[in-house]
Amino acid sequence: MSKPVILCVDDEKLVLQSLKTQLKSAFGDAYFYEVAEDPDDALEVIDELNEDELSIILIVSDWLMPGMKGDEFLVRVHQKFPNIVKILLTGQADESAIARAQREANLHCCLFKPWSEAELVAAIKSGLSQPG
Fold first, then answer.
1. At the top level of CATH, which class does the domain 5-129 belong to?
2. How many CB atoms lie under 10 A from the CB of residue 17?
3. Given this model, what pLDDT does residue 130 score?
4. Nearest-5° angle of CA 50, CA 53, CA 55?
5. How far from each other are the two terminal CA atoms of the chain, in whole angstroms?
6. Would you say 119 and 98 are in contact if contact means Cβ atoms under 8 Å apart?
């Protein structure tokens, strides 16, 4: 069986690099790590991985991105893949967007930029330990 996938979505390349580095440092080869620079790209990645029968177990998504906000993206993902654990990473999400993601996308948690590696790892571990 192939490894599960963690997907990071952010319109800043530097943020994606940091996330990927921190995840690899914390979880090593336990997962595949995919990145996307916008929600549309992320939806394509999700479809491709699904076609290849790779399961995405967790998504870390920015909120403020061009084209589609993170809460809207996570709601869309949740409609097709309700078992994926969803984490919102934001510098400026408003309370109503976070509440919407919690209500409509079963948001696991919201981390605020700048985040610490310890916060990120703890959020992912707690998200993945929940019974699916």
1. alpha beta
2. 13
3. 74
4. 70
5. 18
6. no
